[in-house]
Amino acid sequence: MVVPPAHDAVERRTGDHRAADADLERWDREHVWHAFTQMADYEPLLIERAHGCTLVDHQGREYLDGVASLWCNIHGHAHPHIDAAICEQLSKVAHTTLLGASNSTTVRLARRLVELAPAGLNHVFFSSDGSSAVEVALKMAFQYWQQRADPRPQKTHFVALADAYHGDTLGSVSVGGVARFHAMFRPLLFDCWRVPAPITYRAPAEVPRDRAAEYYLAPVERLLAERHSEIAALVVEPLMQAAAGMIVHPQGYLRGLREITRRYDVLLIADEVAVGFGRTGKLFACEHEAVSPDFLCLGKGLTGGYLPMAATLATDEVWNAFLGPASAGRQLFHGHSYSGNPLAAAAALASLEVFDREQVLHHLPAKIERLRQHLARIAGHEHVGDVRQCGLIGAIELVRERATATPFDWNEQRGRAACRYARERGVLLRPLGDILVIMPPLAVTIDELDQIVSAAEYGIERATADG
């Protein structure tokens, strides 16, 4: 039986489009509570459809997706192979529980992730978002020390970097360090020990860039040497701290963290929610420095940006600490209703197949180099303090004065203004304060990349004209 479209849909297709659009915009302002958005001054932008790297709003205006739908989309929108995989799975089953049961699609995805991930990560726990993937790793790390063969129950603390962002659940917020996001919730959080973020742009003048890794690893070594008997794990975004302001870590820093955590018997949690799945030029950021963490947290691009899904991969050693008779209560007491959802798993498998079919990683170096060239040019702008790049991720930091790295007043919202102007040139960007982020789908063409950066430059010019 064919179900007739709702009255609203009929009106929008055949009636007064302006009235229908006005209703949608009003409902968006009044009913939809947007994340990290001040609803008092929110201006609706309703995306109706998409194709490739282009988004189309409800009035038919097109925008290049300059931030990959918040760093999620990999192969572009409406990719035929991923679309077909979801439809095929939908004809079988849309959802089954992973609590005490399973489904073949999710099992195949778990196997594929184990095959592709850094060596030793043989066990996959599925959740629905990156915050939860980190939360799971924190719980696993804590519980591991309580019940391994030789328990170390005093190892209950975590170490994270200053300015870190690992998500919005209470556990992931506790290891986060972005005060603007988290200060309100301080009474709800557990304490976390912090080490300095390796920000080469604002490193002391006496620290040359080729010695930055050594300089920033020293306080990590001191802390773990002193307190390792109390530390369960250290958590880090490999190579680049994304929401912290696209902070690119110096070469060797990640490898140094792995060596130090091994030396002092501390687990390493690699949060690749933002930087995984090709963003850095390799499938996983850890590959750049041949690092195998104890936990690998994945999300965002896992399904190609199609459906909510995340995963936490763990080692045999961690897994074995949770085995035993049910009566012993050693299992992980954590779960999600939609863990391992078959539709999301089908999208993820198809996305990984696209990496192979279209040789996505092989085609990245030319795009990465083009972005490098653009950023090198933009670095000369009088109000650009620093440009940063890691693979196909770019960041442009706006400042009032280059020579002293003096920032603009936060209340001036220069980054937000630059993105608003970029939209006039048909490109959607989203800033991190006064840092413009360029993170398009990996499927972006060179011409599209040129247009995205050109719009960003236009936005910078307009937003800083009176600076």
Account of the protein in words:
- The structure is a single chain.
- By secondary structure, this protein is of the alpha/beta class.
- It folds into two domains: 45-75 and 359-463, Alpha-Beta Complex (Aspartate Aminotransferase, domain 1), CATH 3.90.1150.10; 83-357, 3-Layer(aba) Sandwich (Aspartate Aminotransferase, domain 2), CATH 3.40.640.10.
- It has 15 helices and 17 strands.
- A seven-stranded mixed beta sheet has the order 4-12-11-10-7-5-6, with helices on both faces. A four-stranded mixed beta sheet has the order 1-2-3-15. A four-stranded antiparallel beta sheet has the order 13-14-17-16, with helices on one face.
- β16 (431-432) and β17 form a beta hairpin.
Envelope shape = globular
Q: How big is the Rg?
A: 23 Å
CATH fold name of the largest domain: Aspartate Aminotransferase, domain 2
What's the total number of strands?
Answer: 17
Helicity level, as a percent range?
25-40%
- The overall pLDDT, averaged over residues, is 94
Q: Main β-sheet: number of strands, strand sense, barrel status?
A: 7 strands, mixed
- Euclidean distance between termini CA atoms: 62 Å
Strand order of the largest sheet: 4-12-11-10-7-5-6
**Class per helix and strand makeup:** alpha/beta
CATH architecture label of the largest domain: 3-Layer(aba) Sandwich
Poorly predicted runs of 5 or more residues:
1-15
- Estimate the strand proportion: 15-25%
Highest CATH level, the class of the largest domain: Alpha Beta
